[in-house]
Design brief:
This protein is elongated. By secondary structure, it is an alpha+beta fold. The two termini are 32 Å apart. The longest helix is centred in the middle third of the chain and has 18 residues. Helix content is 27%, strand content 11%. The chain binds a DNA duplex through helix 3 and helix 6. This is MYB-related transcription factor. One of its GO terms (molecular function) is sequence-specific DNA binding. It is found in: Nucleus.
Length: 324
DNA sequence: AACTTATTCAACCGCACGCAG
DNA sequence: TCTGCGTGCGGTTGAATAAGT
């Protein structure tokens, strides 16, 4: 989109050299990355793997700060990135997750393999927000931070639109930490209220906004048709959870793994089974966002098995959109 | 064709957190 | 306990591009 700026060098960082504290300016580039810089960083990462970003910036011969290198890698150079427009499934998932997580783009991105938080954030701010606004709704996506902490009562819509007032949920067992990495036990602790199988509590066709008492829209529509065009059709009943609710992360730990066949986990929510090729792929590897090690050798973005993904993410709430 | 406005998205900035010394 | 460093996150900016007039 943008053309690289090659002369955008700024005096950003002062360094003290060894000669009695004389100041030496380190020239760090800012602005768009040139293809040459991309190549340098890519080559370095492929050869040496991820490490200290400031070291990477230095050792790769880049006049960039480590932070910039990290961002460039995560948002652009990472080989497991999925390019192109968001699919309707992804759109639904983003909206859905945003209704739960608010602006926690990194957590949302962790559930959308191949997508970055920045990408999702941009997509949300530029596209979805606008569509929702155009749909005549102004209250669809309040953040968890906006929730009314006094409201312990959960409202859930049921089938034909009736309302069920849930008894106060014991939310104490839910991982409230904003970091998703250690929330894998939430389902069991919580009695797994987010398990779509608990249909006596929740209707699968509706989103429950856990952020506050705001109406959410019905996702019963087929994904393919009029993705967001139907968002004007709002469900008036919602579920509200107080506090900051963290959805169990798909990526959980940093155990070294690979794409070998038959990887299984005691905690099945941490892995994606790819039934087509008889492989189980650790979600962390797919996502790549939180992991410190990139080993994406064989994984091809764009070939994600959505059904496999969603079917095995038992802890992911309300994955209720219809797959084609 | 020229100009204006809207949209997109890469990148920066500041802050918070964790960890080591 | 304090401090500095590295990292990650979310908000924001601004240039490039598209669309409209």
């Amino acid at each position: 989109m943008r053309k690289p700026e090659h002369n955008n060098v700024m005096m950003v960082k002062d360094k003290v050299n060894n000669n009695g504290g004389a100041i030496m300016k380190a020239k760090l580039r800012k602005g768009l990355w040139s293809p040459e810089e991309d190549e340098k960083l890519m080559n370095y990462m492929v050869t040496n793997g991820q490490g200290c970003w400031s070291d990477i910036a230095r050792n790769a011969g880049l006049q960039r700060c480590g932070k910039s290198c990290r961002l460039r890698w995560i948002n652009y150079l990472r080989p497991d990135l999925k390019r192109g427009a968001f699919s309707p499934q992804e759109e639904h998932l983003i909206i859905h997750l945003h209704s739960i997580l608010g602006n926690r783009w990194s957590q949302i991105a962790a559930r959308l393999p191949g997508r970055t938080d920045n990408e999702i954030k941009n997509f949300w701010n530029s596209t979805i927000k606008k569509r929702l606004k155009n749909a005549g709704n102004t209250t669809t996506s309040s953040s968890p931070n906006n929730s009314d902490s006094s409201d312990h009562q959960l409202k859930a819509s049921v089938g034909g639109g009736g309302t069920v007032f849930m008894q106060e949920y014991e939310v104490g067992g839910v991982c409230m930490d904003s970091s998703s990495s250690s929330c894998s036990s939430m389902a069991t602790q919580f009695g797994n209220p987010f398990n779509p199988n608990h249909q006596h509590h929740f209707n699968n066709n509706n989103i429950f906004d856990v952020n506050g008492v705001v109406p959410m829209f019905n996702l019963q529509h087929e994904v393919g048709g009029g993705v967001l065009g139907d968002y004007g059709e709002m469900e008036p009943y919602v579920m509200a959870l107080e506090n900051d609710l963290s959805v169990p992360g798909l990526e959980v730990n940093n155990t070294t793994s690979n794409f070998d066949n038959n990887i299984t986990s005691v905690n099945d929510s941490h892995y994606i089974n790819n039934n087509d090729n008889n492989q189980s792929i650790k979600v962390e590897e797919l996502v790549g966002a939180a992991g410190n090690h990139w080993q994406g050798e064989t994984f091809k973005m764009g070939e994600l098995d959505w059904e496999g993904l969603l079917a095995n993410v038992s802890s992911l709430p309300y994955l209720d959109f219809h797959l084609e």
